[in-house]
Amino acid sequence: MPSLHIGGGRAVISLRRPDKRNRIEPVDLETLLGHLGTVRIDPTVRVVLIEATGPSWCSGFHLGALADRAPAPVSFGELCDELERVEVPTIAVIAGSVHGGGTDLALACDLRIASHGVTLGMPAARIGLQYYASGLRRFVERIGPAATKRIFLTGETIGADELLRIGYLTDLVVPSELRNRVDALCEAVCGLAPLAARATKSAIDELGGPSPDLDRIQDGHVRSAKSEEHAAAMRLLRERRTAGAGGD
User: Reduced to 3 states, what is the DSSP secondary structure of residue 90?
Assistant: First the structure.
């Protein structure tokens, strides 16, 4: 089953079925939702990582279970929706190829960093499926209609360089540098003021939607400008400047 480890401001969710291309089984859906719930109530978490080992990062929901049409308390799409709604920044750490619903699981994260050599494949139309609505919405909002059509209406395998070009990936590194880049990203995120980071993520997500409330977003800015978090950060900045000037 997928595991969760929290420490040093990071929550790391690991997919652990490399021999099954890290597919998500029905039983995993509630486990992963539980992990996301734990992350939400832990004030120490500043960033969430979704990781996996093996040649496939994730191949999505188990097609055999989908074919059985067995009722499930939650769908794979709902899991991706919940991941998208996590308040802190989320990062998909992609060291293997992404297929099927795994493409949406990664896209539900705020950032997707991958190593050279990964590929993406979306076979939904090939097996007679129109993809679920929230997943298609996520693709169109994040990478645009043209790139979404390229992925869904060809079913072609798409390489890492092209995924970076169309905006599916946010960062691409050589395999030996993947961990260093992830650590650097986590340090950068953890260095942000946490309430401001959460508010900024929420505002960006709303602005990317169909009808953003600009007044609400501006109110968030005003609240942050009056917050103790901002005041404390400014005091620290002034102290550092004073200390630097005194050393000249």
Answer: strand
Q: Which of 103, 205, 105 is nearest to 163 (CA)?
A: 103
**How many Cβ atoms from other residues are within 10 Å of residue 61's Cβ?**
24
Q: Which of 43, 13, 32, 94 shows the shortest CA–CA distance to 198? A: 43
The token duo for 93 is 């750490």
Distance, CA of 162 to CA of 61 (rounded, Å): 25
- pLDDT tens digits for 53-68? 999 999 999 877 665 6
Comparing CA positions, the residue from 1, 95, 84, 101 lying closest to residue 48 is: 84
110: left (phi over 0), alpha (psi -120 to 50) or beta: alpha
pTM exceeds cut of 0.90: yes
Q: What are the beta bridge partners of residue 52?
A: 15
Q: Is residue 103 within 8 Å of residue 63, measured between CB atoms?
A: no
Domains, in order of start, for the chain: 3-190 (3.90.226.10), 194-246 (no CATH)
pLDDT tens figures, 150-207: 999 999 999 999 999 999 999 999 999 999 999 999 999 999 999 999 999 999 999 9
CB atoms within 10 A of CB 186: 20
